[in-house]
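lol ok so funny story. i was supposed to be doing the assay writeup but got distracted and ended up predicting the structure for this chain instead. priorities right. anyway since i did it might as well share w the group, maybe its usefull for someone
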Amino acid sequence: MHYYFYDTSLSKKKSIKYLNFKIYCGIVLRVIKMKKSKISLIMKIIAVVASLYGMLQSLDHWMFFTYFTNLSNIFIDIMLVIFIIYDLKKVKYIPQGMYLIKFMATISITLTFFVYMLLLAPTNSQGFIGAYLNNGAGSLCVHFITPVLAIIDFLLFSEHYRPDEKHVYYSVVPPLVYVGYVIVLGNVFHIRWYKDMLAPYNFLNYGAPTGWFGFDLSLLGSKTLGIGTFYMIVVLLIIFIGLGTLFLKLKRTKKDLY
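and the output, tada:
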């Protein structure tokens, strides 16, 4: 008969070490989470302050509320303030609908970022850099600082958002509503921008010689891109869907990693 002796003291030491390791990991994760929460809160506050500063630099007429840049900034500001309140109150349950609206606001401000950088700033009469430094660098705030911070906040810190493939279709709601809004202002209320434009932006100016379906790149300038407005709207919708798909994919990928 063989007798086996088991060292219970060694087993207890291993158990204690394992328990201490779990406690340590838990503390580290909590610290990381706390730091992430603080970083997220600070980023949201900076984004809102930058946006408000930038908008105040150009708030001199009610026409201010006809520009997508300002409307998208107001949209994202409202959502960021709501989530700042959530953070400060340490709200544990946030409705998915709020994340979906924040997703729409983020896509809208992302378009503001890309359209200004790729289309408007290069054709601005003050030049690319001058376009951003305009109005005491207010343009830099609403077209770059706030959009970038909002994008980072959504992608890295909206951790409880459960992305769904169908959500991508919500990304086209803001631009379609805006286009309808501009058309109503131009045709029903006979509003004009820069004296003779039927839209606030050259790529939406269907009153230009190229109209809705024309094409003449020789007309490229501050009043038109030389491309029919219909085609530009289609391009922008494709961009919106593309951005929405990318954002949702990045959110799903990040969620899978955790």
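The two ends are 51 Å apart (CA to CA). Residues 82 and 98 are 9 Å apart (CA to CA).
back to the writeup now i swear
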